[in-house]
Amino acid sequence: MPFPADHSLIVADTAALADAALREHAAATAALTPLLPAIADMAATLIETLRRDGRVFLCGNGGSAADAQHLAAELVGRFLRDRRPLPALALTTDTSTLTAVANDLGYAEVFARQLIALGRPGDLLIAISTSGDSPNVLRAAEAARRQRLTVLGLTGRAGGALPALCDLCLRAPADATPRIQEIHILVGHILCEAAERALSEADPSP
Question: What is the CATH number of the domain that holds 117?
């Protein structure tokens, strides 16, 4: 079957789009270098929480919800090596709870309500919002602080309201949502690898 007449134009346009995306991604990852101490501080906080038998909760919306679930799975399952499971829970997965709370109390409460029920002092919340202004993520951070959880944030360059509610917050050095999300999952993977390495050395048996 022959390609349509505009096939070559689509290929050229997509190649240009991909080149621009790769350039933006490379610039954003390069701009992370000055933020390495902040990333290391977040990793140390995660490791210290897990060593104290604290639990990790994660939340976000849309792509950030997917990131929350992805990172929770890396901690509970495995990242690069076999080791004991690490206690992590994405607050984005229980559809009965999410819909009940959204219906009865409003969507802004869907994560906060779960933290009030499940969170305890010494646990940790990873709050993910590309804008830093997602109402339900902000409410989760507020609830976490009241419950005496540590709060780590992942947001974009603009920051929004989230950094003020966090103990530590990484602002991805990008403005476009796709680039911010790419930085978030990269940083999340670094955190998972650091935790896995530290805790596998402490307890090598899976």
Answer: 3.40.50.10490
